[in-house]
């Protein structure tokens, strides 16, 4: 499905891809404020900041970097903001927003100096292939979790839910239907699958709500409070720049910077490998501009009043739909903007409707794993660790860190230290620091 497109795309394809990407990422509009509100920030203010950040930075990714990748507040980063920085360390929310801003400034410096792109270039090819497949498995896990197909189990950690649940039957219907549309190469297969799954979910709306809707206290599939809500700009400029720039806060700034750095790098590398979005040198296309956009998103996040912005792995949904140019990101970004006023409408398309698309995208992203030489264990084992730890640890960063460290240790142990570039040794130092600062 991830065809190696060059110029063989069309405006219609890009628009459909942009809509598909938005439908796969729109959950962040409600989920992000539901998490950050637990840090003491107003729900409506964070929602407004989330929409504005997603709109402006996705537009920048499309117009400036010309890549079909959505940028929005990152999951994981918002949890670190709330539960580690604010609740765990007792940092005031305004100070934490200042730390986000300074992490963005650090990003900008690294991007201007091309340090971030240099890191991408030293990532061993087997690790790149593994990261792409690992992100695919991660996306699949998210889809299965959103559909409540995979549930927590105290005895086995996770298990499959019973298919007697009408929610799961609706998901299975959507998954099989979308799979058939994809296999038959129906134009707009993914977005058609999302729409039909949504229609199938409506009859059970009175018994079940979207995961994001539950977080804000909704009981039904469709928001009963109407379709319109006024934007709240109260968080814009509320960050504390002075108290956030102290020695005590540098570990927090570093954690924001490092986590966002490797989340975005691995997303660019993984999506580029799976979707054929590479330049003549085999590097992710327009990498420097993409990384600069990502850096701007983190800086802007602090100013607007939300956790750091990052490139979204769900962008793979639009790429699977055929999106290959910046128009995909532009369309997706523009889809965010109306929800400054129409956020209650988000509950109309539940997460179960996009879950089949996420599961299938995981399958599409597995292709690069066939390029790993599994017979050469000093290459294969680090790649395997990177591949499996991304979904198993629920962290792209953890997979990349352990892929790097195991690559270095194994290569040294077998007498192949010459295959380790100097830059990778430096990255390994930061990986160790990140592990102990988490």
From TrEMBL:
What keyword terms does UniProt attach to this protein? Membrane, Transmembrane, Transmembrane helix, Transport
Record-annotated membrane-spanning stretches: 15-35, 41-63, 70-89, 95-115, 127-147, 167-183, 190-209, 348-369, 381-405, 420-437
Report if keyword Transmembrane is assigned.
yes
Q: Pfam families, alphabetically?
A: Xan_ur_permease
Q: Which domain of life is it from?
A: Bacteria
Native organism is: Spirosoma endbachense
Family, according to the entry, reads as follows:
Belongs to the nucleobase:cation symporter-2 (NCS2) (TC 2.A.40) family. Azg-like subfamily.
The subcellular location is: Endomembrane system
| Membrane topology reported for the UniProt record | Multi-pass membrane protein
The name this protein carries in UniProt is NCS2 family permease
Annotated GO molecular function terms are: purine nucleobase transmembrane transporter activity
| This protein's record includes keyword Transmembrane helix | yes
Which GO CC terms are listed, alphabetically?
Answer: endomembrane system; plasma membrane
């Amino acid at each position: 499905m991830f065809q190696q497109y060059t110029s063989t795309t069309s405006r219609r394809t890009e628009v459909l891809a942009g809509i598909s990407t938005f439908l796969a990422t729109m959950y962040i509009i409600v989920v992000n404020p539901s998490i950050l509100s637990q840090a003491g920030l107003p729900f409506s203010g964070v929602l407004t900041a989330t929409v504005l950040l997603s709109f402006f930075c996705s537009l920048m990714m499309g117009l400036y970097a010309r890549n079909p990748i959505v940028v929005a507040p990152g999951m994981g980063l918002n949890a670190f903001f709330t539960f580690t920085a604010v609740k765990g360390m007792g940092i005031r929310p305004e100070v934490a927003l200042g730390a986000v801003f300074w992490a963005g400034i650090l990003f900008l410096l690294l991007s201007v100096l091309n340090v971030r792109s240099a890191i991408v270039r030293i990532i061993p090819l087997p690790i790149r292939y593994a990261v792409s497949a690992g992100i695919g498995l991660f996306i699949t896990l998210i889809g299965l979790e959103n559909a409540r197909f995979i549930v927590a189990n105290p005895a086995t950690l996770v298990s499959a839910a019973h298919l007697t649940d009408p929610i799961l039957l609706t998901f299975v219907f959507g998954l099989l239907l979308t799979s058939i549309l994809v296999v038959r190469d129906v134009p707009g297969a993914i977005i058609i699958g999302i729409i039909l799954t949504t229609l199938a979910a409506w009859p059970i709306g009175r018994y079940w709500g979207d995961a994001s809707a539950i977080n804000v206290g909704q009981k039904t599939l469709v928001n009963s409070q109407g379709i319109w809500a006024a934007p709240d700009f109260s968080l814009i400029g509320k960050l504390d720049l002075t108290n956030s720039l102290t020695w005590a806060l540098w570990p927090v700034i570093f954690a924001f910077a490092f986590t966002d750095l490797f989340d975005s790098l691995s997303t660019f590398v993984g999506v580029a490998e799976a979707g054929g979005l590479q330049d003549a040198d085999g590097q992710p296309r327009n990498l420097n501009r993409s990384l600069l956009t990502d850096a701007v998103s983190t800086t802007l996040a602090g100013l607007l009043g939300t956790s750091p912005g990052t490139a979204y792995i769900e962008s793979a949904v639009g790429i699977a739909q055929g999106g290959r140019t910046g128009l995909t990101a532009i369309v997706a970004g523009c889809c965010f903007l109306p929800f400054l006023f129409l956020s209650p409408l988000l509950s109309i398309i539940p997460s179960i409707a996009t879950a089949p698309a996420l599961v299938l995208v995981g399958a599409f992203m597995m292709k690069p794993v066939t390029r790993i030489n599994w017979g050469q264990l000093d290459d294969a084992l680090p790649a395997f660790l990177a591949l499996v730890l991304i979904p198993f640890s629920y962290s792209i960063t953890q997979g990349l860190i352990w892929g790097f460290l195991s690559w270095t240790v194994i290569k040294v142990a077998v007498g192949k230290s010459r295959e380790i570039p100097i830059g990778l040794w430096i990255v390994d130092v930061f990986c160790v620091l990140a592990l102990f600062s988490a």
